[in-house]
Amino acid sequence: MKAEIVTPKKSIAEYKQYDKFLLAVDCIIFGFDGEQLKALFIKRAFEPGLGKWSLMGGFVKHEEGVEEAAQRILNQLTGLSNIYMEQLSCFGEVDRDPGGRVVSIAYFALINITDYGDELMKEHNAKWFDLKKVPNLIFDHKKMVTLAKERLQQKVANHPIGFALLPYKFTLRQLQSLYEAIYETTIDKRNFTRKILDIGILNKLDEKEKESSKKGSFYYVFDEKKYRQLDKEGMKLI
Amino acid sequence: MKAEIVTPKKSIAEYKQYDKFLLAVDCIIFGFDGEQLKALFIKRAFEPGLGKWSLMGGFVKHEEGVEEAAQRILNQLTGLSNIYMEQLSCFGEVDRDPGGRVVSIAYFALINITDYGDELMKEHNAKWFDLKKVPNLIFDHKKMVTLAKERLQQKVANHPIGFALLPYKFTLRQLQSLYEAIYETTIDKRNFTRKILDIGILNKLDEKEKESSKKGSFYYVFDEKKYRQLDKEGMKLI
DNA sequence: ACAAAAGTGTTGTCTGTACACCCATGC
DNA sequence: GCATGGGTGTACAGACAACACTTTTGT
């Protein structure tokens, strides 16, 4: 009836009896090159798995939160801050890392692919891979990538996070290409335009993009204020 | 250009330089009493937080995977195995547990409320709480519960996991009540019946439930085979 | 006979989808 | 003047939401 009968009281000191673990953060970084959805992998510079492709990652430090750690690692490797980032899942199989018992918390991040400079690319031996052509990755990283892609698809259907993958201003065609890449499908131009504009989170600029067509297509920007009004419940985007 | 230039090689031994953490598992256990969606909390039997309401939890052991740990803890506390369980999120704020730096992986689980016996209830000082009347919980457990409820709502819209909250055979009214409780809404009886039967994962029995009405209402059972055919993509349930 | 819950169909509205032509411009 | 991608409207079909009466049976 009372707790004392069965479960012995324990003091804070007794936390010490429990096992401790190395905690890693691994980041699936998505980018979009205008045609394909890409992920960023690095050639691993240390054992185990030296020379193999791997997600960007690092170890959590004692004095930082797990979320902070992910931000720090993303920042270290991309030079970017305020990256859109979301926790994916925690991977804790006993043998997932041959180098030791490491529990990894996977995050996925969305960046504008042009923000990631060549210097950092070379410095970290990083490379963008088409998501349809993911190379062999160490440990359980491929599982992480697969899961991340699924989550991105789910999320992007109801939340306009996809904009994080595009430049500040973009055309409706670029946005459509992005959704087509994420869902590996084709979308009718008219239906897409109507739906996305009806949501009311895009502002049309006077300016046109003139690279990819003679007529030129209008730039739009994402309207964060209008977005915030709608965000809470999620909106139907696709 | 090559990894060696910038990043020094590291040996496995160097994993040792990184910090280690206590890893906990906390479980949000949902149940349904026919009217309300409930969650199971226990009165904590040790410090910190002795005597306060808390989620069921425990520490991960070195020789087990995180998922295994969650199953073990659920089994210890409920006596049940093969519980429907899903990882929710990892909580890793530095100060989340005043007893030490503990990173917690939250799982949510669905059980048939009648499977959880009185003895275990007393043994662990556990109690079912209406989800609309969650008591104060230790640490960040309330955040976990809130998130778990949101995830349950999302998940249940496309996957028939709700059946895990019901007995083997149930009436359409019970099933409807469950959905009404999960979404805190009311549903039209005719629309609900039509939709759920159209999906084709329920089998009608000849038997009637006679407790709650004079006419009696037919029992149905969940058809796992039919379900598996549809599962992959998820189905629209609500 | 009546109270209490079970069961069952139809209609209007909305949402999604399919589909084709003209427009503006650079070459 | 023609080739290229940009922009726009309509019609049909399926999904969803609103709505009320009859059935069964225990008391």
TrEMBL record, chains A, B:
Gene3D superfamilies: Nucleoside Triphosphate Pyrophosphohydrolase, Winged helix-like DNA-binding domain superfamily/Winged helix DNA-binding domain. The keyword Hydrolase applies. Keywords: Hydrolase. It holds the Pfam family NUDIX. InterPro entries: NUDIX_hydrolase-like_dom_sf, NUDIX_hydrolase_dom, WH-like_DNA-bd_sf, WH_DNA-bd_sf, WHD_NrtR. It comes from the Bacteria. This is NUDIX hydrolase. It comes from Ilyomonas limi.
